[in-house]
Amino acid sequence: MLTAEFTWKDKDEFLDAVYWLRQIISLIMGILWGYLLLQGFIGLFTFLLTNCFVVYLYTTSYQNVDDEEYGGMTEILKEGMMSSFATFLVSWIIVYSAKMENIDPTL
Amino acid sequence: MVLSDTLLIVGISTCLTWLLVYRTENYQRLKNEVEKQTKKLEKQKATISDTGKSAKKKIDRQEERLKNDSRDLNMTKMKSMFAISFVFMALLSVFNSIFDGRVVATLPFVPFSLLQNLSHRNLAGNDYTDCSFIFLYILCTMSIRQVLGSKDDMAISIDKETAQQIVNIGHRVNEKREEALKRLLDVVYNIEGAVHTNLQVNGV
Question: Where would you find the membrane-spanning parts of this chain (chain B) (predicted)?
Fold first, then answer.
């Protein structure tokens, strides 16, 4: 997954790599966003933009994959989107709540 | 405290799926069997250039076995998933009664009105950043169950792969058949020629 321009045995292997990359990024971003106490839809939009941008860069620049093989860039960007979004929300909410609990003892 | 309780319960409930479905002996055995047979079939497919009738039969048998195992794997998965959905429903109602009306987390955003029914379910007050148990539970299951699912959608992918392999093998066999016929005709033609020449030689 981390080797540049890796030769993938099949399509699913690359899509799995994208999926797990997304999960890792989402978890890290969720923790970071929570720790920084980011709030509102800015947090959501910045996550979506950053996540898609990282996957785009990973596909085009790092792995040099021909996106047409996978049904276009939108298909790659869609891969594991919902579950990574859920992972991000869970980690963001949990860290944010924990920090807020520390700040406000009435919570 | 409530947060850690929620985390613990969500963790237990998601681990339960894993323990009851993906770690069962039968499931693991079938999964390994299917993986092994797919690899075997791949190898046989790779050496198809030397095939005769017996090799083709062997591959057919192998395919049949692989199909049966894939079917069994799907059945095991289906049965377990059926049981799991019951467990999940029961757990959800139990946890819901424990955490009903309690704020389990603070949302860093205000959800849009459609989601507010879920995120603010049975909670007092108008602070929509308060999060109910059910909202967090749904998010966790969306995230963790799909992680497990992504690794174990193998049966479906194997089914697809098997179907594709069968098509490929069919094509190859047809190609080889034409080639074999050509070769056979050549041999027959050569033999005839040789016999004819021999006869001529003998005759002279």
Answer: 6-22, 81-99
- The closest alpha carbon to B166, from B33, B38, B36, B31, belongs to B38
Here the tokens at position B171 are 């094509």
How far apart are the C-alpha atoms of A105 and A96, rounded to whole Å? 14
Subunit contact B139:A90, Cβ cutoff 8 A: yes
Q: How far is A40 from chain B (nearest CA, A)?
A: 4
Q: Which of B148, B135, B162, B1 is nearest to B69 (CA)?
A: B162
Q: Using one digit for the tens of pLDDT, what is the confidence trace for B67-79?
A: 887 777 777 777 6
**A33 contacts in chain B (CB < 8 Å):** 108
Cβ B59 vs Cβ B48: under 8 Å: yes
Contact A93 B139 (CB under 8 A): yes
Instruction: Give the closest-approach CA distance of B105 to chain A in angstroms.
Output: 5
Contact in structure between A93 and B136 (CB atoms under 8 Å): yes
Residue for token pair 């459609």? B114
Residue from B8, B14, B109 to probe the interface with A (highest A Cβ count within 10 Å): B109
Of A24, A104, A21, A40, which Cα lies nearest the Cα of B111? A40
Taking only the tens place, the pLDDT of each residue in B125-180 is 888 888 888 888 888 878 876 555 544 454 455 555 556 666 666 666 666 777 77
Residue A34's pLDDT band, with cuts at 50, 70 and 90, is very high
Look up tokens 């594709």; give the residue: B164
Structural domain spans, chain B:
2-203
Q: Which of B109, B131, B140 sits opposite A40 (nearest CB)?
A: B109
Write down the pLDDT at residue A107: 45
Look at phi and psi of residue A5 and say left if phi exceeds 0, alpha if psi is from -120 to 50, else beta. Answer: left
